[in-house]
Amino acid sequence: MHFSFIKLRAPAGRARIVAWLGMACLTLSAQAAQPLAQGSVPGAGQVVVSPADLQADLQRVPPEVRPQLLARPEAMQRLVTNLYTRRALAERAQEQGLDKRPEIAAELALARDKVLSDALLAQVVDKGNTPPDDKALALAKAMYQAHPEDYQNPEQVRVRHILIAPTKDKDDAAAAKEAADLLAKLKSGADFAALAKEFSADPGSAEKGGDLGFFAPGRMVPEFTEAAFALKKPGELSGVVKTKYGYHILQLEARKPAGPQSFDEVKDTLLAKVKQSEVQKGRTELAGQLEATMKLDEAALKAATASLKQAEAAQEPAPKK
User: Fold this and answer.
1) pLDDT confidence of residue 316
2) Cα–Cα distance measured from residue 305 to residue 257, given in angstroms and rounded to the nearest whole number
3) 255 and 230 in contact (C-beta within 8 Å)?
4) Cα dihedral 211, 216, 222, 227 sign
5) Are 138 and 263 in contact (CB under 8 A)?
6) Which long-range contacts (CB under 8 A, 24 or more apart) does 267-274 make?
7) Is 320's pLDDT higher than 80?
8) What's the pLDDT score for residue 281?
9) Tens digits of per-residue pLDDT, 189-212?
10) Which residues, at least 6 apart from 242, have a Cβ–Cβ distance to it below 8 Å?
């Protein structure tokens, strides 16, 4: 079934967006009477940009970027300015009757269809097909029990490391020698955490004594991973390990064997998966119902396709002689 507009978007951050929209609507309703920008434009008349316009425009911005925009007054002013300019152009176009042209009227209709259909799907269809919490929990548990092999923790290790990286004042050979000297001190009983805090070029872990926490194979670069998983007993040191970042010394803190994840570990992921699945199922069923009402005129479609091909060919530039 090919019904592209009904395809469910990725759920990441969706609840956060809905909550943000709800709070924003309450705030903007109190400000609705106060335009953000307005002016009289020759050939367009009075142009007004409202808080609701700004809110709608912000929805086109990725959720993770919105806080950055909202924190920058100059960025928000640019958004409003762009909205004002575009609306002025649109009003001028309408005054000149461009909205009556068939091809433009069709584009406007398609834009309206998209906005309204997306709203119906998100606010009515999806809401009606989202299972209540108790049903979603039962479905998630059933999914977990049906495929326990899908929920396994790989073997993990926890290590500390010290990174000595070449710099403009320290060439590769000097970095390698410094790492070798530190390894000798560690073998003589020096405190790993203290040396990591003083010498490691990895700021994220140096302040924690070089501690990287637990990680599974594949998370680190191959040379580092191989050295880390070769360590067997807590306290064991690696040799000097070279990676693209420089020279490392590793010390094993602990190993965690592979094993099944508990339901609580994967519950949130499974709940999101179940809800997405149920919502998508509702969209697919609706798509089937709507498609069943359609009577396709294949002859008309064939004629329209031929006409469009002819129009496209007419627009192609003539080959150079």
Assistant:
1) 74
2) 61
3) no
4) positive
5) no
6) 267/140, 270/140, 270/143, 270/144, 271/136, 271/137, 271/140, 272/11, 273/140, 273/143, 274/131, 274/136, 274/139, 274/140, 274/143
7) no
8) 95
9) 999 999 999 999 999 999 999 999
10) 176, 223, 248
Whether the per-residue pLDDT at 282 is higher than 50: the answer is yes
The owner of tokens 């405190």 is 191
Cα angle for residues 43, 46, 49 (degrees, 5° grid): 120
User: What is the length of the chain?
Assistant: 321
Specify the pLDDT at position 198.
95
Write out the two tokens for 162. 């010290």
pLDDT tens digits, one per residue of 235-260: 999 999 999 999 999 999 999 999 99
Q: Mean of the per-residue pLDDT values for the chain?
A: 88
